[in-house]
Amino acid sequence: MSKKIKIGISIGDINGIGMEVIIKTFQDARMLDICTPVVYGSSKMASFHRKALEINDFSFNRIKNAKEASEKKPNLIECWQEEVTISLGESTEEGGRYALTSLDSATADLTTGIIDALVTAPINKDNIQSEDFDFPGHTEYLTDKFEGESLMLMVNENIKIGVATNHIPINKVANTLSADNIFTKLKILNRTLIQDFCIDGPRIAVLGLNPHAGDNGLIGKEEENIIIPAINNAKSVGVNVFGPYSADGFFGSGNYKKFDAILAMYHDQGLIPFKSLSFGNGTNFTAGLSIIRTSPDHGVAYEIAGQNKAEESSFRKAIYMACDIHKNRMFSEKINENPLKVKGK
Question: Can you give the pLDDT at residue 219?
Answer without folding.
Answer: 87
